[in-house]
Input
Amino acid sequence: GGQVMQENITPGPSGIIPTLQNIVSTVDMGCELDLKHIALHARNAEFNPKRFAAVIMRIREPKTTALIFRSGKMVCTGAKSEQSSKMAARKYARIVQKLDYPQA
Output
């Protein structure tokens, strides 16, 4: 059997507290997306297929950037906490769903 190594984590110099700067979350929307359609109809989206094969979308609250791929996968970056990262990812997913299915 494999032995579990007990790693001895020594606390750093006192008074130094790392702060989270950039949380990245990923979402798989489970369907192929029409990136051109998303880029044309979303206010806060840019799409330059020659440069990068994803739509770049930004929202102000929480201040984040999402990369949305044709495969339906999405990467949301820039949030400062896990909670705001999840919130942002949900917002992006909703934006995309509304564009593809306006009745949703």
About this structure: The CA atoms of residues 19 and 81 lie 10 Å apart. The chain has a mean pLDDT of 88. The radius of gyration is 18 Å.
